[in-house]
Amino acid sequence: MLIRRLSLKSVTVDKRLYTTIEWIEEYYAHRRSKDHHSLFNGRKVFDAEKGELSINMVAKEMGLHKASVDYYVRTGKLKTIRRGTYHVVLRKDLEAFLLEKYGNHMEIAKDA
Fold first, then answer.
1. What CATH number does the domain containing 90 carry?
2. Which end of the chain, N or C, is surrounded by fewer C-beta atoms within 10 Å?
3. Same domain (yes/no): 95, 109
């Protein structure tokens, strides 16, 4: 059933779906993470390598609760772009927000 919902990677051989142990382990590691499974127009919504972060990724980097980051987004202090129903925080906007809020006192990890 997971394969049919496109949640689990698989290949089709003779009209049957097959998966691997590695793909199953990857699924269980990220099964409830929208950061890894979210698609918009066939493209991943969040890509840390390109500097496109989710609210959860930003909260984890800053060491804050997700509700705090949501507050900054709602009040307009942290700029985001919308992709469907998702808020995407660009790395440059996050760095500008941190510079404005904390000055040079806070360093963030470059790898989310």
1. 1.10.1660.10
2. N
3. yes
Q: How many residues does this entry show for the chain? A: 112
pTM more than 0.70:
no
Q: Provide the residue range defining the domain that includes 5.
A: 1-31
- What is the number of domains present in the chain? 2
pLDDT tens across 64-112, in order? 999 999 999 999 999 999 888 888 999 999 989 988 887 765 555 444 4
